[in-house]
Amino acid sequence: MGMSTNIVGFVSPENEIYQKQVKVLKACIEAGISELPKETAKYFGSKHAGEYLIEEKLTTDIITHEYSNDFQSGYEIIVSEIPEDVHKIRFVNSW
């Protein structure tokens, strides 16, 4: 049986930028506007308004680099590559 490791970053729902962009997204949805303003589209990574973006944005990929040497292997995270708004990183092992 093998094991896999995934590394996920989380944005705080209390983050000011996140809250601002969610307000814009919700306003667009309520107004029936399907295409988001440029700044909000860039933030969510989609130009189309959708409720799913609210939860999806709370997780983000963390860039990892595999390493191995004598009898060891694993992942490295370069701190400067962590997105600015990430407040928590989770290492998930699955069997």
Summarize the model shown.
With 95 residues, the protein is of the alpha+beta class.
What do these coordinates show?
- Helices cover 29% and strands 32% of the residues.
- The chain has 95 residues and is α+β, with helices and mostly antiparallel strands.
- It has one domain.
- The strands form two sheets. A three-stranded antiparallel β-sheet has the order 2-1-5, with no helix packed on it. A two-stranded antiparallel sheet has the order 3-4.
- The longest helix has 16 residues, at 16-31.
- The protein is elongated and about 60 Å long.
- It starts with a strand and ends with a strand.
Total of helices: 3
Q: Measure the end-to-end span.
A: 7 Å
Work out the number of β strands: 5
Oligomer: single chain
What class would the helix/strand composition place it in?
A: alpha+beta
Strand order of the largest sheet: 2-1-5
Total number of domains: 1
Calculate the mean pLDDT score and round it.
92
Overall geometry comes to elongated
- Uncertain spans: none
Which percent range fits the helix content? 25-40%
Please provide the ordered H/E string of secondary-structure elements. Answer: EHHHEEEE
Range of strand content: 25-35%
* Rounded radius of gyration (Å): 17 Å
Largest beta-sheet details: 3 strands, antiparallel
